[in-house]
Amino acid sequence: MNSIYIDTHCHLNFKRFKKDYDTVIKHSLENGIQSFIVPGTDILLSQKAIEIASKYENIFAAVGIHPHHTFINQKLKIEDQKLTQFENDMAELEKMLIHPKVVAVGEVGLDSHEYEETKYQEYHISEEFMNAQKEYFRAEIHLAQKYKKALIIHNRETKKELLEILNSEWNEEMCFRTVFHCCEPDQELLTYAILHNIFIGVDGDVTYGGEKAEFAKEIPLELLVLETDSPFLLPEPLKSQKLYPNTPANIPIIATYIAELKGVAVEEIATRTTENARKLFNIV
Q: Which of 89, 175, 195, 227 fits a disulfide with 201 by CB distance 3.0 to 4.6 angstroms?
């Protein structure tokens, strides 16, 4: 029997897949990917995630505002609704969270990386920007708690601030219902995840070796989930061959690499990570 997998994080809603996501899904299903979670990164892409999930029984959506997209003027009013952008975004997320195919709030969190390529003019990391990220993240944690959804956490170069917020907002219902997406190879994050029963997402960059590979060895199987972050993080050897974009069909490459790292059968990685994903997102 062929192994089956769940891709817990793939951006089939991104522009890269606009013309061919149906083909990508069909090919991935043929390669043993049983289910997919499509996360939103802003309001429009969250809506697109729901649209895709609504077409396929085995695809589910997450909705949220990526920290990168909180780079806005929080004081601006939306004329028709007399709301700040933050208030409007939270209202829109609440509307989406009642949809039956929405299983998580995500991808949300904190990010202090200085991106060179961005659609935002004059993009820079400032205290005001980080405060906006924190306001969004806290509110989105509250939405996950209120609607009993999973939480998909993005963190880049903000470990201290992230853990401070999680400590202040944590409740027991978040155990086994939270994931560190594409987790940084950091021992403190791993320890925190183990203590709080937080899943850790591992992506194609684990196949590049180095710190990510060493980190993956230490992740307990009961907390491991697989993700592609499609169309990004193409695993080797496909990256060297420039066979872009990354798609959910490449999950078995990641699983095989992790199995070799941990010295276990790939079937065990498939079984455990699929069970973990079902628990995380409360899907059958």
A: 227
Burial 25-59 (b: 16+ CB within 10 A, else e): beebbebbbbbbbbbbbbbebbbbbbebbeebeeb
Instruction: Tell me how many helices (H) and strands (E) the chain has.
Output: 9, 10
3-class secondary structure, 14: coil
Domain locations in the chain as residue ranges = 5-281
CA distances from 134 to 111, 120, 245 (A): 10, 19, 32
Single out the residue of 21, 200, 178 nearest to residue 106, CA to CA.
Answer: 178
Q: In Å, what is the CA distance from 222 to each residue of 176, 218, 275?
A: 10, 12, 9
Question: For residues 265 and 281, what is the distance between their CA atoms, to the nearest angstrom?
Answer: 25
Per-residue pLDDT of 161-210, as tens digits, reads 999 999 999 999 999 999 999 999 999 999 999 999 999 999 999 999 99
Residue 225 to residue 276: CA distance in whole angstroms: 6
- Beta-carbon-side half-sphere exposure of residue 267 (alpha carbons within 13 Å): 2
DSSP 217-275: HHS-GGGEEE---BTS-PPTTTTTTT-PSP-GGGHHHHHHHHHHHHTS-HHHHHHHHHH
How far is the C-alpha of 193 from the C-alpha of 269, rounded, in Å?
19
Two tokens at 151? Answer: 């939480």
The answer to whether the beta carbons of residues 6 and 278 sit under 8 Å apart is yes
Domain 5-281 homologous superfamily, CATH: Metal-dependent hydrolases (3.20.20.140)
User: Model pTM?
Assistant: 0.94
pLDDT tens readout for residues 62-80: 999 999 888 664 434 444 5
